[in-house]
């Protein structure tokens, strides 16, 4: 059983709380792969009401841009497996039979990650989609009946049939 010690303030450390070659026998240990950085499954389900469930680790890429937020168990595993450098810790510690471990607050991945580009979704410009965008509400009087679509800049003055010009 894991125990929770400490206060809610944060402190900054640049050295690891884990020693190389030491055993890690806490229930927080998980197998972490390179793909684990983007895994959306959260392992905090068994600690849903526990004090530890509120601790998350911010994962930064090599240029210190945020790429993900992970649960405290994944953060400890990333540090232990040497897949991330810890830049800052919480004051809280997790105790296990093999030792006491600080909970990482900010981690940096020391290698380049392949960025997965998201496919852009094109939504057709139609009366139905414009009304849906506006929540079926008139933008002038907030009425919900007898809705019409108007150009912000009239067609006679060069207004086009685009998302930004229709209300």
UniProtKB/TrEMBL annotation:
Residues 138-166 form the HNH endonuclease domain. It holds the Pfam family HNH_5. It comes from the Eukaryota. This is HNH endonuclease 5 domain-containing protein.
